[in-house]
Amino acid sequence: MKTLIVYAHPEPRSLNGALKDLAVRHLSAQGHEVRVPDLYAMGWKANADGADFLDHDAGERLFYERASKTAFTHGSQSPDIVAEQEKLLWADAVLFQFPMWWFSMPAILKGWVDRVFAFGFAYGVGVHEGERWGDRYGEGSLMGRRAMLSVTIGGRAPHYSDRGVNGALDDVLFPIQHGVLFYPGMDVLPPFTAYQSDRLKAEQWSSIAEAFKARLDGLFTDDPLPFRRQNGGHYDAQQVLKPDLGQGTSGTRIHLVQRGEPEQLPVPAPSRPEP
């Protein structure tokens, strides 16, 4: 199998660097092909602007979304964007290795998403009609691929619990796991996390390494998070969860299929105008 490790940390000797190196060794030893875009080492351009489109006239007002669609359709995207899109299409699984900074990913990784997930590539695909709002949230161009976040966190685990001051971790990561990865169709595995990353002692590394290797062993077999598919009949024509679903839970968890709920519900056929 083929694994892409998108790595975003400025220091190779960091815990993130050690986890990235461990993943490369462990997956390669199992016979998997591995590629690693090291965003800092690459000097990845994080800002999305008109330079992303080879045919953009600098004298014209930039509508980034429109320009992205045109460039993707006409093959005039910046070569660095195309190269990363090709890596994503090559991969069977994508591992994102990064530190949590201000409750999200580092800016360089966000810039990678902003530029690589272009209109027509990761969004804006599929038919929009009736209750169907395109191919997204469980469908799309990246269907058939798995994704997992490997995140180092400075805080303590209780801080990221349901009643923790920072909010539950699945809520904090929801915009990334659901909004960035599930949106274009990837199956998202529960994240691997290492807490108090700036206070770890050398003797703690072995337990973290063993836990990480166990998660890597399940990269292609573990069950993904059971996010509801947008076009699975769970949402109404306004993309609001139907009232009989998600009972007994709240927050972002209502977008997970609950025990006893079907993964797929009947979807009404789009109405056709009278001839």
From TrEMBL:
UniProtKB keywords: Oxidoreductase
Asked whether the keyword Oxidoreductase is assigned, the reply is yes
Give the Pfam families listed for this entry.
Flavodoxin_2
Q: InterPro entries recorded for this chain?
A: Flavodoxin_fold, Flavoprotein-like_sf, NAD(P)H_dehydrogenase_qn
User: What's the superkingdom here?
Assistant: Bacteria
Q: Where is the Flavodoxin-like fold domain?
A: 1-211
Whether Oxidoreductase counts among this entry's keywords is yes
Family assignment from sequence similarity: Belongs to the NAD(P)H dehydrogenase (quinone) family.
Q: What is this protein called?
A: Flavodoxin family protein
Q: Which organism is it from?
A: Corallococcus praedator
